[in-house]
From TrEMBL, chains A, B:
SUPFAM superfamilies: PLP-dependent transferases. Residues 40-294 form the Aromatic amino acid beta-eliminating lyase/threonine aldolase domain. PANTHER family: L-THREONINE ALDOLASE (PTHR48097:SF9), L-THREONINE ALDOLASE-RELATED (PTHR48097). It comes from Planomicrobium okeanokoites. This is Threonine aldolase family protein. The lineage of its organism: Bacteria, Bacillati, Bacillota, Bacilli, Bacillales.
Length: 363, 363
């Protein structure tokens, strides 16, 4: 095994993990289906109670006219942007340079839809009103990702969101919410999800981040937008004969976790403070504004991996299964808090962080 | 309820159905997962034993180098054709005028990939060598659908397939198999699936037709083709974090049904003969060449629907939940044989067909 495999292996063999909702295994599916009757009918190509009831529920929850269930957020968001560029008759959309669509989708937006992208702000910042004001006039749609995942889940303040929304409405620019983790921002904003979504023309929410379902996404907006998105869903190959394995699990974990986001947020702040108390380690942001943050380690990647593996083997506490290089002397990993954290004995956490600090000091 | 709803309702309330594998309900999922351990790990974005083991198994079964699991056939086939048009540097593909891609996918192939289509032969025929020989020289890829679903599942003879394959190889034209129902053709061709697939550069097979899984598709071909198709899978939004609910069910029902295709074929021939014995009813083809056929009724759609609803209510035997208009005086429905047929008491089937014939004579 190389160092990174050793790190992964040490993580997989810990008794407790600090982040997440527990392992992604078959139990996740079985637990959600335990109480569902054998005779309950499948959805059929986007029709039937199995899909439409959940779509209606999510539309109402998000404060939008209609919603549609998608197999993935990648598909949902490309389609949202395609619709808005067609409406405006301009192929330009604007978003953060580290948007999922820009760095994780093999350029599907450009290769499938011919959409051109305008990158707002620098990669270490969140988007401000000034960034939106200074973009080219023919941008059809602005996408805001809340929280901005690739920089540790940072957030603009709510006044900025409101100002961007007002500006876009005045200028006839559509505003789309990449709200993969939108529920995770509510405790910080102290707003309802409806209050946030009302600032946007269209909204996407993931079913397997904070909610912890198996896969899938919901896209919401007005009636015309959703009708149109169903046509594109078929074009993309996303209008499956049966999506119910994802829908019933999404619904189950949505009910289980939608009201626990404040717990995850508090846990994130607590855990970030523990990391920040260690020599040569800092979280981004320093004080989390959602359930997530990044842990920056002032060590080369290989060295950090060996050290983390050591802490995990000695403490039985899982911090991370990987580290990514920032530059030759620094690396980081991501932490998203979920159900797992509250199961970990506090004294074991303290032991792990004591070990981590010792190792950072010693090297 | 209007007449079509009455028909659907009468079908849903029958004791037995002649076609299919039984209801598409939650039991289909639960049965497949019954023996799978809670601790079995999910696939993660196309990696892990949960997906890779089944892909390897299907590649080997189909006689291809590699295979990839897709959420849908729509996605898999658009991608196959996109890859072959890129390889050739020509945006043209040729297929049957009633290909799934031409009539059921909202023109995804054209709208997402800018592919131009050449329609081979007339819509009532299967594609012959002459059709392929007479198409424009710059066609990058020919798609053959076996069996040709929209005309009752007709098939060209195996010599025609071989001749088309040889011609395409000579002319540097790629040949793609829309093999959604390819297993269902093996008893007629008396060939192995490998023998058929060896004629094609790429092959798609559905996991929920004859196999009867929940959803999903497998695309197979050489190593380069599959590597490339995984990139496009991500672009389409098909590289889900977890596809295992579809994969494990596909595998379960594949093992359960792959060797039962001859039974379904024999049942189809038997059932078609019963339809053909009724006044004013004929199947297409007259003698099925797979597990499927169409039932043509020499009556206007509304009248046929009322009559079928009557037969279903009186006999408790489900023939069809719908009828589609051909012209003002004729209509049809599709029949695909599966596990359900062998559960139906023979005397009840005879009663139903006696009733059907009586009603056709009486009206």
């Amino acid at each position: 095994m190389n160092t990174m495999e050793v790190l992964k292996d040490s993580f997989d063999n810990t008794d407790y993990q600090l982040a997440g909702h527990g392992p992604r295994n078959v139990k996740v599916l079985k637990q959600a289906f335990q109480e569902i009757d054998d005779e309950v009918k499948s959805d059929i190509y986007g029709t039937g109670a199995a899909i439409n009831d959940f779509e209606d529920k999510m539309a109402s929850f998000l404060g939008k006219e209609k919603a549609v269930f998608f197999p993935s957020g990648t598909m949902a968001q490309q389609i949202a942007l395609r619709i808005w560029t067609d409406v405006k008759g301009s192929p330009k959309v604007a978003y953060h340079p580290l948007s999922h669509l820009e760095i994780h989708e093999e350029d599907g937006l450009k290769k499938l839809h011919g959409i051109e992208t305008v990158l707002l702000t620098d990669k270490d910042s969140v988007i401000q009103l000034e960034d939106v004001k200074s973009m080219p006039a023919d941008v059809a749609c602005v996408l805001l990702e809340l929280p901005q995942r690739e920089i540790g889940g940072q957030l603009p303040d709510f006044e900025t969101l409101t100002a961007i929304s007002q500006y876009c409405r005045k200028k006839d620019i559509r505003l789309h919410l990449d709200g993969a983790r939108i529920l995770e921002t509510l405790p910080y904003y102290q707003k309802s999800v409806g209050e946030i979504c009302s600032l946007f023309d269209s909204v996407y929410i993931s079913m397997y981040k904070g909610i912890g379902g198996i896969a899938g996404a919901v896209l919401a907006g007005d009636d015309d937008f959703i009708k149109n998105s169903k046509v594109w869903k078929k074009r993309h190959g996303g209008d499956l004969i049966s999506l119910y394995p994802y829908i019933f699990t999404a619904d189950y974990y949505f009910e289980l976790r939608k009201d626990k986001m404040a717990d995850y947020y508090e846990a994130a702040k607590e855990l970030a403070a523990k990391y920040n108390s260690c020599t040569g380690i800092a979280t981004l942001p320093e004080i989390p504004v959602s359930n997530m943050f990044h842990v920056h380690i002032d060590r080369p990647r290989e060295q950090a991996a060996e050290m983390l593996a050591g802490v995990q083997r000695e403490s039985g506490i899982g911090l991370s299964g990987y580290v990514r290089e920032i530059d030759q002397g620094n690396c980081y990993f991501e932490v998203s808090l979920g159900d797992a954290y509250s199961d970990v004995p506090k004294e074991k956490i303290d032991t792990a962080f004591h070990l981590l600090d010792e190792k950072m000091k010693g090297e």
